[in-house]
Write a structure and sequence with these properties.
Layout lengths: L7 H13 L5 E5 L5 E3 L2 E2 L6 H7 L7 E4 L8 E5 L4 H7 L4 H9 L3 E4 L3 H9 L5 E2 L6 H21 L6 E2 L2 H9 L3 H24 L6 H13 L5 E3 L4 E4 L20 E6 L1 E3 L2 E2 L2 E6 L6 H19 L8 H18 L6 H7 L39 E4 L2 E3 L14 E3 L2 E6 L2 E4 L8 H7 L2 H14 L1
Parallel strand pairs: 1-7, 5-6, 7-8
Antiparallel strand pairs: 1-4, 2-3, 4-5, 9-12, 10-11, 11-14, 12-13, 15-18, 16-17, 18-19
Amino acid sequence: MPDFPFDAETHRRRRERFLQETGGGVAIFCALPELVKSRDTEIRYRPDSDLFYLTGFTEPGTVAVLTPHDEEHGFTLFVRPRNPEREVWDGPRAGPEGARERFGATAAYPIAELDERLKGLLEPADAIFYTLGSDAAMDRRVTELLRGFRLTRPRSGKGPADVRDPSIILDRMRTIKEPGELDQIRASAAIAARAHAAAMRMARPGIGEWELEARVESTFRASGPTAGTAFPTIVGSGTNATVLHYVDNARRTEDGDLVLIDAGAALGLYCSDITRTFPVSGRFTPAQREVYEVVLAAEEAAIAAIKPGAPFTDIHEAARRVLVQGMIDFGLVTGTVDEVIEAKAHQRFFMHQTSHFLGLDVHDVGAYATADGSPVPLEPGMVLTVEPGLYIPAADDVPERFRGIGIRIEDDIIVTPDGHEVITRAVPVNPDEVEALVGTEQAHTETQRHGGEG
């Protein structure tokens, strides 16, 4: 694995903060399994976000146990042992020695020793912090150990009595980003913006959706050893733009099409998420521009609602009201804005939420509502998307000029102490600027060719 952005001390501080909230509990975190694409071909490994956040360890076949009551085993890693034969094929492993020396583990053992040592690590605890359902083998271990402790606890007085979800503590930590995390997300966003701009410059009628996908993803991957895609890239042209998670990317564009690209980079595991919609020919039709300007106005209204203390739901509500008024103006729905929202008639054309958290996962952890059901207030350090859209089917009951138009515009936003910071506007959203950018790579090539012939 290449180097990732944070040093062992950063991960140690995170573990310390986490353990301060666990009381007398012990926490277990398991690596994600390696996945097979087909037969003996594996998918490129991606570490578990929680395990990485707390340890920085990125190898598969790993279990971390955090035990606040045991100084010698406060941070124990069970890892794959060094294996010269396998390392010839798959690359170097840290092994127990590397786990201690490079990642700050107070104790480290081969993963094969997990079963014989886990009971002793858990026994002094009053609870186990573990995500049931995250690892089938660990689920069985934890269940069997709890059953055993239940039998022995009356006489020994030792052993945890229940399992608690670590996300109650960890999600809150991950939702409020550290300054270094914000820098990493800004860098990821800059890569994503370059990739979107590159695709827009490359666009021309007749280009394949897959070619635009290739330009986006090659820009991601060329940006560094830990850079790549945050999620499968969406390139939808024509009516494909009305399919929210269209990922076939198999159609050849035609003159007059809109192209919707929803793509995000991952850098050092931290994600960005941008959507831009543009005319492949370089000019919006009048109907396309009308819809685009409504979606852009909805995005700007939602962004303006982002500030510390504002309820999270204000973002969606601001965007939704602008979009619904646009639907009314276009003849897609009838009634007042409030009547349309009450009847949910708008959901035919705008059926998703406007925002989600962003971080180590593209749909990052974090609560959107409190225990009493009220929306969480925004806080400095939160990172989120704003992504309104209008998706008008090519149906007989909608005005003909709008049929088949799908538009989404998405940016990434950091909540700051005095408001917000938009970190993805290096790729334009203004319709005139969008038109000016589309196809410029081909125009430049043509200019060079004709200049050379002269």
